[in-house]
Amino acid sequence: MPPYPAPPGPPGWGGWGGWTPPPRPGVIPLAPLRLGDILGGAFSTIGRHWKQLLGMALAAYGMALVAIAAAIAIAYLALADRLDRTLDSDVAPGWDSVAPLVFSFGAVYLFGLFTMLAANALIYASCPVVLQDAVLGHRSTFGAVWRHSVRRVRSVLGTVLLTALIVAVPLLLLGVAFIASVITLITMSMNAGGYGWLILLGFLGALATGPLAVWLWVKFCLAPAAAVIEGQGPVAALSRSSQLVRGDWWRIFGISLLAYAMAGVASYLIQLPLSFLNILGPSFTDDASSGGAALTIVITSLVFGLFAVLVGQVLTAAFPQLVVSLLYIDQRIRKENLGPALAQAASPPPAAY
């Protein structure tokens, strides 16, 4: 009597006499992924390719900080005289004096916001690039990751901007409610009119648009990976993400939320020791015997603080995006039987005779 048949494997895999485990050339098995496979694959990718990921973060955020600092310096040099006159004036400055300052530094703020979005887009583009090699078990270099990421950063930035516009609606309404609350508290003692209707409008608007924004954000969360791996444009990548998420929204939402929560906790734990250093820094500075020693302590504290912020930013930006990119690969394995194609791409080329 023949033995009982083994349980069937995932689509595209089988073997003589029953089920055989799927190949695993890299950080994940080339089969439908479980939660442990996805999280383990993200951690393994960081462990194997941390130099490339950290190098991309240093390059992206370093260039962003230099650009923002240059914009602030240019704005300050251009308006230094006007700013000094405004601050030194004994009378309240009029709108004609304040308007150039408000518009100039508002433009600097918007420039900084866009610059940080571009830096995040470069990180988002690098994660699928690194993950492609990690899944196939191939080695990667910083130069190759940089070149491929830069080529696709415009498309990824487009998907990030379009998704940010969706999420910005409830955040903007919450901001309106918060500002109206602050103005109401300030003017309460002056018997001025309140802004209760604006507060109510902001909170109710945020409650009404928040769930829709979350639903659309999850629906389009796979777009950066599609833009990089498939070479899609921003709109096509959003459509592709919507197609892959369809039918698995809750699963993708839960795993993505867990990834962001884990990254946030890890970032906080990394930056926590530096927070104690910043608290103890002034006391050390007060006891310093010379100004040079005090300056050294302050600079060292700032350097370690910036390093902790950078590492935390890498975790909060890279780890969730690696998880989301693995969800993209998982959805393609489940819906398009991508596993055999990945196994073929991972296998070494035949030897020449």
Automatic annotation (TrEMBL):
The chain crosses the membrane at residues 53-78, 98-123, 156-183, 195-218, 249-270, 290-311. It comes from the Bacteria. InterPro entries: DUF7847. Keywords: Membrane, Transmembrane, Transmembrane helix. Residues 54-319 form the DUF7847 domain. This is Integral membrane protein. It comes from Streptomyces pristinaespiralis (strain ATCC 25486 / DSM 40338 / CBS 914.69 / JCM 4507 / KCC S-0507 / NBRC 13074 / NRRL 2958 / 5647).
